[in-house]
């Protein structure tokens, strides 16, 4: 048998059986992972393991309406919608030909969109488990649903940002500079979007007019590609993060930079011989707290920085052993979650800077995660081909 035949056989053994029979799945998991990295896979704090992917799982989203469904996309060119309670498959989003790097539900959980690296985007109607729309763009960088409407936004490597009405497919494009639109976010008012680009610039777009309201470039922009953008709850403040290790706070109405948060460990411009160290760090994720004037910035060197927005100063530095991949704030408290390259999810109290708890179970780095509305569960995806559901609810919070 060829390698392909063997691979297919493996898939049959591995995954079909596991989905059908939960107890066996557990046994299989632990055997499978024993030899991987002893220290890493000593404990599994998860409640549910979803194992239908056959390669790294890149992205996860929860359905906003009920928080009972997850969608995951992976390097195996597959995306699945499944039940968070037991890991049971609802349906497969089939037909992708490249790694599925973006996946998310519409604001009312009616639709789910999946996008692969080559730029094929598909939208499925969840109740019918059926594809209702698809479109091919250039290489896909990011994708996001509108917070109040069946409208999908996506950024591509040619610098364009696309906007479609779903399922009619009416389309608008916003032309950025001739370099990738690396990150983007629709602001809470639903009328504007902020997009970051590889050349260090950031634009705020008027979605209705299709015009650029503000452009940050040169000194106001970043020196290196943007990696992430976020806005606070009312959309008055935007934060941008970059490979240059700076996080900039921007007034969304004026487009002016309010302040710049720099990690003091990084020399502003290292002489050429020492460049490597400065370059190995970057801002990977950031976000605003809803209940206090705080923002969190996660760095590739493992630093979680909590900044006080009212004094524009560093409040806490929470050190991780390895790089932070993503962070998320709890919706109604000053608790921030991080996932990192060491395969753990950690909860931090942003007021004290202390770690509240830590959850392990993956035998490789966590690549993405999502927290449900009442902050009782976290769903993670990993390079170990699995997605896991962790119960994080604590009686005292």
Automatic annotation (TrEMBL):
UniProt signal peptide: none
Disordered, as annotated region: 1-46
Domain Anaphase-promoting complex subunit 4-like WD40 span(s) in chain numbering: 288-366
Pfam families: ANAPC4_WD40, WD40
Principal location: cytoplasm
WD repeats: from-to residues: 50-92, 93-134, 188-215, 317-358, 359-397
Keywords per UniProt: Cytoplasm, Repeat, WD repeat
Gene3D superfamilies (UniProt xref): YVTN repeat-like/Quinoprotein amine dehydrogenase (2.130.10.10)
Compartments, record wording: Cytoplasm
Highest taxon, organism lineage: Eukaryota
Cellular-component GO terms for this entry: cytosol
Biological role stated in the UniProt entry: Plays a role in angiogenesis and cell migration. In smooth muscle cell migration, may act through the RhoA pathway.
Protein name: Angio-associated migratory cell protein
Species name: Cephalopterus ornatus
